[in-house]
Amino acid sequence: MINRRYVLGSIAFSTMLAFGPAALAMGARSFSAKEFDAAQAAGKSILIEVHAPWCPVCRAQAPILSRLSSQPKYKDVVRFVIDFDSQKDLLRRFNVHKQSTLISFKGKQESGRSVGDTNAASIEALLAKSI
Length: 131
Known about the structure:
It is a single chain. The chain has one domain (4-128): Glutaredoxin, CATH 3.40.30.10. Helices cover 46% and strands 21% of the residues. It is built from five helices and five strands; from the N terminus they run H-E-H-E-H-E-H-E-E-H. It has a five-stranded mixed sheet, sandwiched between helices. Strand 4 (101-106) and strand 5 form a beta hairpin.
């Protein structure tokens, strides 16, 4: 017998399969401490995206971030994705409490942070702080 929990779980899993890789396909990479530390040491512009595949705000942010990343001004920004559901140690490291958190860095210095923002202009302003 199919119950409500089974149906909801199936929907959540299907959504994860459909949208989970989307953030990675748009120029971002899975968070790697080694790569993050190297980017910081090199003084690069960095954006950390805390993403959850089931999050509608995260899905709304993805095309905005993709569009910005394709602009010459932001093409060198190194983007890392942290999975909200499975990388709890990184959430603690970066003091993140909610999915759809964006954190920008200019080298080793955090330059800005936003939570739940889907406004293209303010996301661009956050990204510009890292350059």
